[in-house]
Amino acid sequence: MSATATALLLTASCSGGATGPGSAGPGGGSQSSAPATPAPQIKISPAKGATAVRPDKKVVVTAAGGELGEVTVQAGGKSLEGEFDSGRTKWVSKGPLRPSEAYTVSVTATGQGGQATATSSFTTLEPTASQQLRIADITPNIKGETVGIGMPIMVRFSRPVGDKKTVERAMQVTPEKPVAGAWRWIDDSLAIYRPAKFWPAHQKVRFTASLAGVRAGKDVYGMRDYATTMKVGAAWISSVDTRTHQMVVRRDGKVVQKMAISAGKATTREYTTTNGVHLTMERGNPVTMISPGKKKGDPGYYKEIVNHAVRISNSGEYVHGAPWSVGSQGRANVSHGCVNARPDQAKWFYDNFHRGDVVKIVGTNRALEWNNGWGFWQMPFKQWKKGSALTAA
C-alpha cells in the first residue's frame, strides 16, 4: 500500500461513524443526556413528629430550587397566619402557637423541576397548672348590661404577669367611636383601661385578649383567647355641691332630676364626703352601714340599715335614701360621709343608675383618692398612661 493510501485510511478512521444522538461512540457505548432538574426541596420546622414545642416558637417553611405555593398550618380547625419573604422561598408564622394542640402542616412548591408537596405534624407544650395564665375576671362582663360613660375595663389575671409588655400588647380595646385610652397596671395581676376622656355615649366597646400561647413570663403561657363587648349608654352625670346641699342629674346634658341632699358633717376625716369624680359601682337595698373601726359601745358607734344605696367609693360613701334626714336635706350636712336624699328621689336614682355613671362632688376639703373604689378619673391621663408597660418601655 502506498503512503497516500495509508493517509486516507487514517483520515477516514478519525472522522468516520454516525454523529446523531444516541449513536455509538468509541468503545461502542451510548452518549449520556443532561441530568434532569430536581423538584424543589421543602423543609419544615418544627420537625415532623416533634412534641412539647414551645408556643412562642415560629413555624418556618423553606423551599430550595423553587417558590412556595400554598402553606397551611392548622390546629383545632383554626389556621395559623404567616408571611412569605420577597422571593417566596420562605414562610414564617405570625403570632404564638396554641398550647396543648396538634398541628398539621401542608406545603406546595413549584420550580423548573416541577411541583413538590410536603406534609408534617407536631404537638405543642401542655403547660402545667403553674405555667398557665388565664383571665380570672373581666369587669364589666354581665351579658346585656349597659354601663356609664366613665366605666373602666378591669382585667384580673389568674397569676402574676411577668412579661407585662407582651401581655398588654395582646389586649385590644376597640370602641365604635374612637377615643384615646391606655392601660395601667395596678399590680402584677390587675390591669385597668380607661380613655383619656369619658367614653362617647351610645356605643359599643369591644375588648379582646389574644392570649393563647403568649409567653407571659418564664415558662408561663396564656391558655386561651378572650373577647367581650360592653354597651355604653347615655351620659349620666350627677353634680353634687355640698355647700348648696344640692344634686343635679343630667342625661346627655339635659337636667332630668334635682335633689336636695345632705352630705358628710365633716367633724372627722371619716365623716367628710370626698371631692372629685366618682363612679357608681354597685347597689343594695337595703345595705347595713356600720361605723368603721368601732365596736358597739364605743363613742360614735352606729349601725344603720339604709334603703336604695348606690356605692360611689370603697371608703363607705353611697348615694342613698334617708327619711331621718329629710329636715336637713337641702339645708345642712349631717351624714357620716354619704350623700343622702329623700326616699323617693333616692329610689329614682337607684332605679336609673348604671355601673360607671359619673358623680362629681365639690365643696369639701377631702379629695377622693384615685384608687379609692373606681376613682380612676382623679388621676390625670398623662400620669395614668405612665402605668402602661408599653408606654413605660
UniProtKB/TrEMBL annotation:
One of its GO terms (molecular function) is peptidoglycan L,D-transpeptidase activity. Keywords: Acyltransferase, Cell shape, Cell wall biogenesis/degradation, Peptidoglycan synthesis, Signal, Transferase. It comes from the Bacteria. PROSITE patterns: LD_TPASE (PS52029). Residues 1-18 form the signal peptide. Residues 17-50 are annotated as: Disordered. GO terms for cellular component: extracellular region. The active site is at residues 320, 338. Pathway: Cell wall biogenesis; peptidoglycan biosynthesis. Residues 236-362 form the L,D-TPase catalytic domain. Residues 17-30 have a biased composition (Gly residues). Residues 31-41 have a biased composition (Low complexity). GO terms for biological process: cell wall organization; peptidoglycan-protein cross-linking; regulation of cell shape. This is L,D-TPase catalytic domain-containing protein.
